[in-house]
Amino acid sequence: MSSEEKTPVGIPAMEEAEPPLKKRAPTLYAIIIFKLVKGVLCLALTAIIYSEADNNRPEDYEKFLESPAVKFVMEHLRIHPENKFFTGLAEKIANLTDAKVHRAALGALLLSLFPLTEGIGLLYRVGWAGWLAIGESAFFVPIEVYTLVSRPVFSWFIFLVTVSNVLIVWYLYAFRAVLFHHHHHHPRPPSA
To answer: In whole angstroms, what is the distance from residue 192 CA to residue 187 CA?
Structure first.
C-alpha cells in the first residue's frame, strides 16, 4: 500500500502541506540593508558620543584644529579657523557638559533602535515592521522637503535621502500584501 493510499481524501500528503517559500524581493533586501546600516551607524555614533563624555572637549577640539591633516585641508580650501563658524563651534563645545553628552548618546541610541527594529522585522517579513518602516520614512519626507526648499544652496544629499524615503514608502505600501502575506497554517489532523 503506497503512502497516497494511506492519506485520507481531501488531506494533502506531507510533501504538499509544507508552506510555499516566499518570493525573492531584491528591493526589500536593499531596504533591509539600508535600515540595518543606518542602525549600526547610529550605534557607532552612540559609542563615539558616549566615549567623549569624560574627555576635555575644548582641548580635543584645539588639537583637532592643530593636526597637520586638518591644517592642510583648511589651507587648500582657504578656510580660516578663526572665522565665525569655527569660533561659534568652539564656544558650543566649551559649553557642553557631561550630562548633555550623555543625553546626546541616549538620543543616538534611541535613534538607532528604529532602523534596527525595522531592518530585522523586514528581514523576517513581519507586517508591523513594514508599517513601522512606512511610518518612519513618511514622517521624514515633509521635513526633508522643507529643508530642501528653505536652504539657500541646493543639497544633493538631502534630495537623494528624500527620494529614497519616498521610494521606500511607495514600495512597502504598494507591495505590502505580497511582501508580508502570512500563510495561516492549519493544524494537521491526527494521522489514522
So the answer is: 15
